[in-house]
Amino acid sequence: MMRKAAFTLIELLVVIAIIAILAAILFPVFAQAKLAAKKTASLSNAKQIGTALHLYAGDSDDIFPYANARFEEGNWWGAGWTFKTQPYMRNFNIFRSPGESETTGGGWNRPTLSYAINAYVDEFWNGRFGAVATGGDWNFTNPTLSSIGLHADTILLGQRENTEYGQKLRAFNGSDAGHGIQGNSPFTGVDWMDSWIGPANTPDGASTRSWPNGRTGTTSPVYANKAIFVFVDSHAQVLDPIATCPNRYGDPARNKWDGSRQ
Q: How far is CA 233 from the centre of its chain?
């Protein structure tokens, strides 16, 4: 009588072990490749946003849009920077980074943002400023491109945490004009502004405080502890948030959020 060939239990276990080892080796590689692809797509989005902001400035006497609607322009429901740049992009979903876990919502939440603009106001009494003014009822002067000293070393916008305390950054709500305050919360570098701005601190590598005033501020370092930043000259870069400001008060010359540096 002929016996049919079959795997022995030992042979089967060896095959399973080999497959498990290969999976353990390959799955992290696949995950890294997926993350790299998302990072590339996010860099492309950020670069397009930076270009749109420059096109807006070119049509507006070299001034970027206010972060939020200004109260004197009508009311709190006016257009902030995300809406004012739409003629140059025509796509709100570009504000979502593929690397962020939260999906685009609908209704009041549509679409949530992954990026916030640099409206730095820390030590404004000493002449410090970011790339744009906050808007809202905060009447800080909006800087011109010529007043920003280091275009290639001053941040225009960056990835910002949008889920802490359940707060979402929104490009606009159900109204076409968009919510000028809650919708466009910028980086301000301080925690004393009104609740519409929300937690908005910038990194400080020397900080010993907890979120949102810690070493990485309210940035969103989702790419191996790095985040995407766009600079005033419109180039996009992946950086450790701490590298944007190693020591805010001890080494102010390296604070890339401060547009007043020369």
A: 17
Beta bridge partners of 135: 138
pLDDT of residue 174: 37
Residue with token string 């009311």: 75
User: Which residue in the block uniquely carries the two structure tokens 């106001």?
Assistant: 121
* Per-residue pLDDT tens digits for 50-83: 999 999 999 999 999 988 776 655 555 567 788 8
> Using one digit for the tens of pLDDT, what is the confidence trace for 132-156?
988 777 767 789 999 999 999 999 9
Q: How many CA atoms within 13 Å lie on the side-chain side of 83?
A: 21
* Count, residues in the chain: 262
Q: Helix, strand, or coil here: 187?
A: strand
Listed by start position, the domains of the chain span 10-254
pLDDT per residue over 209-222, tens digit each? 988 889 999 898 88
d(CA 170, CA 182): 7
Strand partners, 187: 118
Residue 143's closest CA among 54, 233, 46, 65?
65
CA atoms of 174 and 107, how far apart (whole Å)? 6
Write down the pTM of the prediction: 0.80
Strand partners, 118: 187
Q: Which two tokens stand for residue 70?
A: 């200004």
